[in-house]
Description:
The protein is an all-beta fold.
Amino acid sequence: MPREFRGVTALTKANVYFDGKVVSHTLVLPDGAKKTLGLMYPGKYHFGTDKAERMEIVAGQCAVKLDGQTAVKNYASGEVFDVPPKSGFEIEIGDGLCEYICSFLP
Length: 106
């Protein structure tokens, strides 16, 4: 799990979802790849994906159900899950904050 990203451009405008309960900032890496760094407050949220995504949980924990599946899986700090393109996922934060890195995969 990365602790820092060097040589990136950080976009100052926040991505704010669900009345401010999910907030992230976009990083552009030297090779042009994009990631977002964010946090989620307690609640249940659904996100759609255009491109494939990898979610790395930096701190806290969450329960995730990928679109089209019935199983809910729990993830904690240091764990990762992938979401297919043109899909989505439901994520629930029970209590505390869940911090994450979202990478947009090719």
